[in-house]
Amino acid sequence: MNICSIRGAITIEENTKENIVTNTETLLKEILTQNNINKDDIINIIFSATKDVTKAYPAIATRNLGITDCAIMCLQEMYVEDSLSMCIRIMLTANVDLKKQDIKHIYLKEAKRLRPDISLKNSSFTVAIDGPAGSGKSTVSKIISKELSFIYVDTGAMFRTITLHCLKNNIDCNDKETVTKELENISISLNFENGIQQIYLNDENVTEKIRTQEIAKNASVIAQIPSVREKLLNMQREIASKNNVIMDGRDIGTNVLPNANVKIYLDADIDERAKRRCNELALKNEKYEYDTVRQGIIDRDNADKNRKIAPLKKADDAIVINTTSLSIYEVSEKIIKIIKENIK
Q1: pLDDT: is 190 or 335 the higher one?
Q2: Which helix or strand (DSSP H or E) is residue 263 part of?
Q3: Res 54: pLDDT
Q4: What is the residue range of 77's domain?
Q5: Please, are residues 236 and 310 in contact by the beta-carbon 8 Å criterion?
Q6: Three-state SS string across 109-129, please?
Q7: Which residue, 119, 124, 157, is CA-closest to 138?
Q8: Residues tagged active-site
Q9: Same domain, 83 and 139
Q10: Residue 272 CB-density burial (10 A; 0-12 exposed, 13-18 middle, 19+ buried)
Q11: What is the pLDDT of residues 274-312, one digit of tens each?
Q12: pTM of the entire structure?
């Protein structure tokens, strides 16, 4: 036996004694059943409720279920702006015949939004984030993936990896026939470490090597080759079909994951995007000229928006967020809120 704490939460429909007690009983029963806990093995239970739950103590549910021989306490949950309302939380400590990783924390009704990683376990919830270069897609996606424990898939890195291979082997990125033939010699694999994508080219980790101006410039050319897009499209959809993912790119919501649960389109003014890219290069101690970087982004935009196959554009049902005057954390919070609102 191990002493473990199990967490859980549930929302109520209205602030009445009956609603509070009935929903608390439902949550408690589910925690006990899912974790095979005997009432006699419960050590203590701490209840907390948001400030709008006032008509009864959730602890009444324990007496109704015959749980009387343990320490019980009720607290008011700390108020946080825009947080979930009408919510009751539980932390139950008990002697259980389970390993820590096998414990099942239970989140029901609207409370599922509190822990998407738990509520969406064994499912595939997909978030598509599109936008032009420098709009903040990758940075924001990494933050969100960590916060929600989703897998982050940087599709642009996949195109950059094929570009790197071609440049290393003196293959003209404009030569569609040669690039297509060379795809047989390119093996791309992804490894997710702490939710962050590491990309391998023929078993070599090239995650950092693909982040150069030369690679970025040629990647837009590679991305227009149908055989390249088909090879990577299959990989991307396979990952999304088996995991909860945040996937960013330029055609995710319109082409790669047209049925994504949430679609976001990020944008920002050209000068702000150029500034961000220069800052990235400066951090890597790479030389750059602002005007050159700015023009490079403009050229990339034109190439992406006007390519024949899966051009960059906003999906009809995507939510647009202009990130020009927002911090990456403000953007991340906006998107996390949207994602949680779409978790059923």
Answers
A1: 335
A2: strand 262-267
A3: 97
A4: 2-114
A5: no
A6: HHHHHHCHHHHCCCCCCEEEE
A7: 157
A8: 7, 63, 74, 77, 89, 107, 115
A9: no
A10: middle
A11: 999 999 889 888 888 999 999 999 998 998 899 888 899
A12: 0.74
